[in-house]
Amino acid sequence: MNAWITEFINQFGYFAIALLIALENVFPPLPSEIILTMSGFMTTTTSLSIIGVIIAATIGSLIGALILYVLGRQLTVNRLERLLGHRLFKLLGFHQDDAKKAVDWFNKHGAGGILYGRCIPVIRSLISIPAGIAQTSLGRFCLLTTIGSAIWNTLLVVLGAWVGQSWHKIVIIFNDYTTVAIIIMAIVCLYFAYRWYQKRIKK
């Protein structure tokens, strides 16, 4: 994978970085850690600049996030309520008013999720969907996404440039970070699933 990413960036420069990061936001399995740290390293061997790479990556992040945001906006509260009214969801303990409660909660507390979620693996992509469902204003969404993405992109690009040819060591470190983050999220999900079972299904 590394070889074709390098060749693609060598051939198309900043456009390639923006495109790869946009795709990474829509398809999380595409590793941003590799793209960004490798691009950072390439600023020491090519005409690419650190600032240019960060800007290109942040533009790509925003484009990818907007795609998922637009998809999320198609899931209105009314549509979600109709979905939760189906028998299967009722058996799983859902109520139709859960949709409005979830949207109200996100509108009240979701700004931090959009901002800080951009620095958490998996969540950094998926957070755009509930933001769209909650009808978060486009300007606010773009601002928070840009800031959060710029922080994440700057960290990886600068580290890649700093360590040079050892950029792959940064990837290993962030892969471990991703693994830990996923394990923590899985534990949290299991905990809330158990609470949900006790409160909604078992009763």
Summary, kept brief:
The chain is mainly alpha-helical and 203 residues long. The chain is built from ten helices and no strands.
Would you kindly provide a written description of the structure presented here, covering whatever features stand out?
This protein has ten helices and no strands. With 203 residues, it is mainly alpha-helical. The radius of gyration is 19 Å and the shape is elongated. The termini are far apart. 34% of the residues are buried. It is found in: Cell membrane.
Number of strands: 0
Mind summarizing the main beta sheet? Answer: none
Percent in strands: under 5%
List the helices and strands in order. Answer: HHHHHHHHHH
Helix content: over 70%
State the secondary-structure class.
mainly alpha
Give the count of helical stretches. Answer: 10
Shape: elongated
Could you tell me the mean pLDDT? 80
The oligomerization state is: single chain
Regions with pLDDT < 50 over 5+ consecutive residues? none
How far the N terminus sits from the C terminus, by CA atoms, comes to 50 Å
Radius of gyration: 19 Å
Observed structural traits:
DedA_domain; transmembrane helix; 203 residues; transmembrane; membrane; single chain; cell membrane
